[in-house]
Amino acid sequence: MPETATFALVLTCPEGAGVIDGALAEDIERSVLGGVTVTRWLSPHVAWEALFTGPRVLDATGLRRGVERYTSGRLIDINIVPADPFLRRKRLLIADMESTIIEQECLDELADFAGMRAQIAGITERAMRGELDFAKALQERVQLLRGIDASALERVYDRVTLMPGAETLIATMRKSGATCALVSGGFTFFTERIAARLGFDVQQANTLELVDGRIAGTVAAPILGREAKLDALQRLRQSLGLDARSTMAVGDGANDLAMLNAAGLGVAFRAKPVVAQGAAASIVHADLTALLYLQGYTRAEFA
């Protein structure tokens, strides 16, 4: 007899969209899952889940296509995640910063002060899609910023806005005893401030070198990219004595893929296509609180 496991089909949508209703939930439960499930609202009309047992090697793609017949045209994210009650709520979160925890790409914002936003943003986009070597693309963009007054860093930070749901995600996971780490291929000037603002336990990023109060156009070695994010996940997991399945990672760019694939649950958040296709879970429409719903938290449990 094939080995089985418990899974959760989780539907999430943006706050206020109201596109997940009782009729939709009943149709999916009856017609896709066969009615042999345990269902519940994690947040009325925002997040709904169905727990079911299936083969440990589940045809998640086929199941998702079945659900899509009923959700087509609605702003609904469909995810199927392992739901072992002892491992579902993660004890370690590793999060990318730019376009994930914050809404901006800081290098692109800095580019405004050099009048080169379009050129630098184009390089950023290609690097995040995995079309360029991350370290070389970072060095190329930073070189273009050479000579900008260092005060531009503070002015860019003043523009930074948090991704909707970021505060609730970090506060709720920390309240539940999880360790939260902010890992970025960007710069410590920003990660230090964002980590302190949101209460991250750990942060890491690259160091932008300054000379005589101006951007030098160089990044201190070693450049932290894809492998550094993966290393952070593995190092923290080992230091905390955690099962790999008790970890979660979230990001949007190609340099996040290694850590997403190594985590117990890797979530592509509003990500580039190569990342969304490669990650175990993908959030396109909902905000970052969807990561809590994927872990089985209800709205009433949010910090």
What this model shows, in words?
The chain has 303 residues and is an alpha/beta fold. The protein has two domains: 1-83, 2-Layer Sandwich (Alpha-Beta Plaits), CATH 3.30.70.270; 89-303, Rossmann fold, CATH 3.40.50.1000. Helices cover 38% and strands 23% of the residues. The chain has helices at residues 22-32, 60-71, 106-111, 117-128, 134-144, 151-159, 166-175, 188-198, 226-240, 257-262, 273-278, 290-294, and strands at residues 4-12, 38-43, 47-55, 77-82, 92-95, 179-187, 202-206, 208-211, 214-219, 247-251, 265-269, 281-283. A six-stranded parallel sheet has the order 7-6-5-10-11-12. Strands 2-3-1-4 form a four-stranded antiparallel sheet. α10 links the parallel β10 (247-251) and β11. α1 runs antiparallel to α2 (60-71) and α4 runs antiparallel to α5. The protein is elongated, with a radius of gyration of 20 Å. The mean pLDDT is 93.
Give the CATH topology of the largest domain: Rossmann fold
Largest sheet: 6 strands, parallel
- Trace the largest sheet across and list its strands: 7-6-5-10-11-12
Low-confidence stretches: none
Domain count: 2
Second rung of CATH, namely the architecture of the largest domain: 3-Layer(aba) Sandwich
Overall geometry comes to: elongated
Distance between the termini: 43 Å
CATH class of the largest domain: Alpha Beta
